[in-house]
Design a protein that fits this description.
The complex is a heterodimer of chains A (about 140) and B (about 210).
Chain A (H helix, E strand, L loop, with lengths): L1 H25 L55 H4 L4 H4 L49
Chain B lengths: L2 H4 L3 H10 L7 H25 L3 H4 L3 H11 L15 H5 L4 H20 L5 H21 L3 H4 L14 H13 L3 H4 L11 H12 L1
Helix pairs in contact in B: 8-12
Classes of the chains: A mainly alpha (about 140), B mainly alpha (about 210).
C-alpha cells in the first residue's frame, strides 16, 4: 500500500506546487501592483470648456459644442438643444442655426419643417470638450 | 329654555349647555381654558399642515415617487457642490400663509384625482404632463416666480461669477423685467412634449 501511495502523493504535491508557482506568476491584478489595502487614485475631474466656437479639426467634423450640456434633456418628447439652435430660435437667442442638411428627409431629400428624426439625437455627432490631456499620444494631421 | 327641552335627547342637552351662560365657572377660567385650547388646536393644525409639506409626504404616493421625484434626483436642486437642497415643497408650496392655504385648498382637487387614478400609470402621467406643467408655469409666472425667489434673488446674484452666457442673459432678463420661469422650465423635471410651443403660447397669453 505504502509503495503505491508515496509516489502518488509525491506527484500530487509536485503538481500543486508547480501550479501554484505558475499561477502566481501569470495572474496579475488588473489594477497593477497596488497592494490590497491601497486604493487607486481617482481619475481627475475635468471641466467642460466653455468658450467661443471651436475651430474645426478637419473638413467634415461636426461642430463641437462649446458649453455644458449635462442637464439637457434629449429624448423622444423634447430636445432642449432645439430651444436655441432650431431655426425659429437661433437668431433670437444668438445661437448657431442647425445646418439645412438636418432638415432634409433621409430618403427623398425633401426639405422638412423640423429637424428630421434621423438627426434628432445631437450628441451622436456633436459633443462638448473637456480640458483633459490626451491619454494616448496622437499624430493626427488635418 | 324650558326644563322639558333640557331633559330631551343627548344633542339637545349639549346644545343647551353651550347656549347658556355659565353659572358655576368664572369668565376668567373660561377665557384661560379657551386660550390654551386655542393654542393647542392652532398649533396642531399648523403642525399637521407642515407635515404635508415634506418630501417624504410628497413621495408617499407612487404618482410622485415614480415620475417627478425620480426625474428630480440628480438635478441641481437635488445634488450640487454646496449640498443645499430644494425639495418638493420648497418650489411647489408657497411660504406666505395666505398663499399656502390657497394652494392647499386647490390641492384637495389632487386628492380627488388620486382617488380617480387620473395619473396612476406612466402613460397616463405623460398624457397629462403638458397640462400639469402649464399649470405650474402659469402659477410661477403670475407670482413672479415667488418660490424661486425664496432662495434666488437678482439683487444677490453676482453675475461677474457667472459664465458669459448666463451673465448676459441674466442682465438682459433683469432689464426686461422677466421672471425666472420665463426661461428656466424643466429644470427639476422632464419637459412635456410640445413644451416649446406651449412656452410661446404662454408668453403671448400673459404679455
Amino acid at each position: 500500500m505504502k509503495r503505491v501511495l508515496i509516489p502518488v502523493i509525491a506527484v500530487l504535491v509536485a503538481v500543486s506546487v508547480l501550479m501554484g508557482h505558475a499561477s502566481a506568476q501569470e495572474v496579475k491584478t488588473l489594477r497593477g501592483e497596488a497592494g490590497f489595502s491601497e486604493t487607486n487614485s481617482a481619475a481627475e475631474i475635468n471641466q467642460v470648456i466653455e468658450s467661443g466656437r471651436f475651430p474645426q479639426n478637419y473638413r467634415q467634423q461636426p461642430p463641437l459644442i462649446p458649453h455644458r450640456i449635462d442637464k439637457y434633456e434629449i429624448d423622444l418628447k423634447v430636445n432642449q438643444c432645439m430651444r436655441c439652435h432650431n431655426w425659429q430660435y437661433a437668431a433670437k437667442e444668438g445661437a448657431p442655426k442647425i445646418s439645412e442638411t438636418h432638415y432634409k428627409d433621409h430618403r427623398t431629400g425633401q426639405p422638412m419643417d423640423d429637424v428630421v428624426p434621423g438627426r434628432w439625437f445631437c450628441t451622436q455627432c456633436h459633443v462638448p470638450q473637456v480640458d483633459a490631456k490626451p491619454l494616448v499620444e496622437n499624430t493626427f494631421q488635418n | 329654555m324650558s326644563e322639558q327641552e333640557e331633559k330631551g335627547g343627548f344633542f339637545n342637552r349639549i346644545w343647551a349647555l353651550l347656549r347658556r351662560p355659565s353659572k358655576t365657572t368664572s369668565a376668567g377660567m373660561l377665557l384661560f381654558v379657551g386660550l390654551i385650547a386655542g393654542v393647542i388646536f392652532w398649533g396642531g393644525f399648523n403642525w399637521t399642515l407642515e407635515l404635508t409639506n415634506t418630501e417624504s409626504f410628497c413621495i408617499s404616493c407612487h404618482e410622485m415617487e415614480q415620475n417627478v421625484y425620480r426625474e428630480y434626483t440628480g438635478t441641481v436642486h437635488d445634488s450640487n457642490p454646496s449640498g443645499v437642497r430644494a425639495t418638493c415643497p420648497d418650489c411647489h408650496v408657497p411660504r406666505p400663509w395666505i398663499y399656502k392655504i390657497q394652494r392647499k385648498i386647490q390641492a384637495s382637487n389632487e386628492l380627488l384625482h388620486k382617488a380617480l387614478g387620473t395619473i396612476d400609470t406612466r402613460e397616463k402621467f405623460e398624457e397629462h404632463r403638458l397640462t400639469m406643467a402649464q399649470r405650474e408655469w402659469k402659477r410661477m409666472k403670475s407670482s413672479d416666480s415667488r418660490e424661486c425667489r425664496n432662495c434666488h434673488n437678482f439683487m444677490s446674484m453676482d453675475v461677474s461669477r457667472q459664465g458669459s452666457r448666463a451673465r448676459n442673459r441674466h442682465i438682459e432678463a433683469q432689464e426686461d423685467g422677466k421672471t425666472c420661469i420665463d426661461c428656466h422650465k424643466g429644470i427639476a423635471h422632464e419637459l412635456p412634449a410640445n413644451a416649446f410651443t406651449a412656452e410661446e403660447e404662454l408668453n403671448q397669453a400673459v404679455k
